[in-house]
Amino acid sequence: MSNVRKDHSFGAGTGAVAGAVTGAAIGAAGGPLGSAIGAIAGGVLGARAGDSVAEAINPTAYHEHFEREYRNAPYYSSERDWDDYKPAYTYGYDTYGKYRGQRFEDAEGTLERDWDTTRGGSRLAWAEARGAVRDGWHHIERATPGDADRDGR
Fold it and tell me: Where are the domains of the chain?
């Protein structure tokens, strides 16, 4: 399997997981059956969104770019390292497809709320992670055909 295909599989996979979790949560109002149906529908839609993001920007190249550049970002703290910032950039990558078409600022409340459950081993609180998530989000937005950077940055 080529690296490009693996990256698309990764993009679709992360989108499917995010979509399934969201769909199950929304479907929970309909009981266990609603959760199951929501998870399936969310997984399918999430996989499509994740694959379309992977079409626009290779996740391996995305992470390599930020690993090279994160120390130059205005939010960078020398007390933190790549292992702290990587989950924030990953979160930006993973959530862009889910909220595609929305401005980062419009989705930020939900992103902030969910950060603690998605940050893994990162020591960054949301206030520290926000800039990296936002940079990741806008990096994809600029690379996605038809998704002009909506706030001009």
Answer: 1-56, 58-153
